[in-house]
Amino acid sequence: MEALRRAANVTKDIIDEVITKKLDVKSLSSASNRTICLADFGCAVGPNTFTSLQSLDIVKKKYLSQFPNEPMPEFQVFFNDQPSNDFNTLFRSLPPDREYFAAGVPGSFHGRVFPKSSLHVVQSNYALHWLSKIPESLVDKNSPAWNKGKIHYAGASDEVLKAYGERWAEDLNNFLNARAEEIVPGGMVIVIMPSIPDGMPYSELANGLLYSSFESTLLDMSKRVCQ
Ligand SMILES: C[S@@+](CC[C@H](N)C(=O)[O-])C[C@H]1O[C@@H](n2cnc3c(N)ncnc32)[C@H](O)[C@@H]1O
Q1: 10-residue block means of pLDDT along the chain (227 residues)?
Q2: ipTM score of the complex?
Q3: CA-CA 20 to 30 A from 66: which of 101, 141, 157, 203?
Q4: Domain residues for 36?
């Protein structure tokens, strides 16, 4: 979680630049009865979701710099995650001095969770790489992508990589199609997610090493159970 917080600080400048250059806060606000709606997709239980709501502060800063004598619009922030997320913990840790109205919205971000044209700024931090489900071919003994004895794609065959890649491409497509319906014209979608340098072997990634060690532990455990 500390790593995610540090990463959020790194991305702040980029988000600041994009919102400052591209978001027309004034027209969004006047077209929506002076309420700006933001949504954080894959919020978890906090506290990162609050510090990572950088877009809200930047939108406010932009509005103030452009219209110093006008009253600030009101802000509504929706926190989305799967229904199994612990929203009670999230609500209990909402900052008491927050300057926005908060609501939780359960449901998979791979489908629609908001009405049409109802969001102005969408942010998703470190969540979009979560797949909607295991690619079926990985668990099919007759498939060339059967990932026997593994729980990840680090060190796996090209067929396994392809199966994971195809699942993610379809998930991303579903996410973008749903947000395209939910966001107002002129709104903005900000996605922050992990990536790797071109050509880096998956087996050398920090996550690859981590999952390989889980993998050998799970295999040991399953061997003991089967003995
Ligand atoms: C690594 S956490 C990131 C949490 C937070 N955004 C942050 O920056 O610390 C990923 C979150 O995405 C959520 N998530 C994964 N798939 C999801 C989906 N299809 N719909 C909604 N939330 C999802 C998970 O439940 C988890 O809470």
Answers
A1: 65 87 84 89 87 81 88 94 97 92 97 97 94 94 90 88 95 98 95 86 83 89 82
A2: 0.99
A3: 101
A4: 2-128+183-195
